[in-house]
Amino acid sequence: MESMLNNAKRILSFDFGASNGRAILFRLENGCLQQQQEEHRFENNPITINNTLCWDIDSLTNNLFTGIQKAMQSGGFDAVGIDTWGVDFALIGFNGKLVDLPVHYRDNRTEGIEKEVFKRISPEELYSRCGTQYNCINTLYQLAYLSYNQSDIIKRTDKILMVADYFAYLLTGEMRLELTNVSTTNLLNPAVLMLLQVLLKPQQSGMRLSVLSEPTK
Known about the structure:
By secondary structure, this protein is an alpha+beta fold. The chain is built from seven helices and ten strands. The chain has two domains: 1-45 and 56-83, Nucleotidyltransferase, domain 5 (2-Layer Sandwich); 86-211, Nucleotidyltransferase, domain 5 (2-Layer Sandwich). Helix content is 27%, strand content 26%.
């Protein structure tokens, strides 16, 4: 690789947006950006499955690897960074594969579910712990919906990964939750950097607290 011949580092950055994405190859030298080059650009079109709006995760995964392939053809890279939208997540089964397609935050399934959450914790207490404004698309309410309405999916889930962390898992084989992305979930206490997992366990859901790993930097 070019970067191995000098002090420069080549960083491949993936920017997954709600409607499109791109892979950009950056060249850093002495901590300063010297060059950037777009290697790949693609559309991100959600799909509807059983009246539920989902992310086309197979298409996005294919574009992830296409971006990597194109970057390799341009001289390779030293590291990869992945940025996606927040709040949405992938459910990983005990076989290490997706349990179901990640649901799009614009799906209306969580409307009204906050009433169940607020039976367990008041809006004021939740805000004092997490510092995140109420929004029914937040991860907390999506998981609450699954707990109360699709507990069979929860019982088949070994780990929950944010979408960016899912892509990282595909590349590394490691299941980790990255701190800044977890901050969008309405589950993170920023004062102690711990997840409020107790909010996710209505007795009837069968959700195990271990489905969420402690966030890492």
